[in-house]
Fold this protein.
Amino acid sequence: MELKGKNVFITGSTRGLGAAIAKEFAKEGANIVLNGRGEVAAESIKEIEDLGVSCIAVSGDISDFDKAGEMINQAISELGSVDVLVNNAGVTNDKLVLRMTADDFEQCLKINLTGTFNMTQHVLKKMMKQRQGAIINLSSVSGLIGNFGQANYAASKAGVIGFTKSVAREAATRGITCNAIAPGFIETDMTEVLSDKVKEEATKQIPLQRFGQPQDVAETAVFLAKSSYITGQVISVDGGMVMQG
């Protein structure tokens, strides 16, 4: 897909990975829909507009099915279409299974997995009529191999992978691609809170011996949106941490 002039909706795009993804698409000439649960800062909008594209803000909770539909409709009303959806918004709530409450588990699934479904179903109805579109879902290496203390997060992200492959099969005949990105340890606010010891131990698991940058994930999202013949895939952006042969 040629991205210049296309409209890209990125959930959870006010900071971190989402913000980096938004900027990378804007550099390609795509108009951007920034999204957060609360009000999007004017500075964030201006930062995108300074790249020479249009940018709007659509606030709301992706885990609310009806609100997800309202957000997609608002974006289409203001920009005319949504050509690329990046399901980036997500949460963690790390605890051992034995200490995890039912709410701890359900909350991760509600936002990370159900939220991805909500946004995808609403946008897919529009993309089917366009006979073109790209959906990119953010999973995680935790969804591929699990992680200590992350049973809820890993389950939600593994679910995203299964969901991605199913949507890819269902949407392919209309020229719509659906892929997932599985980041490893990326330098964001989420990893910044880790202790130096944890970071050191994590780095030992990475063949490239360093954490990744948000830009690494953002460039992968743009690559997948541009490709018309890659669908149903999971691209690990993890420095080689999870190698599958």
Q: What stands out?
A: The mean pLDDT is 96. The two ends are 29 Å apart (CA to CA).
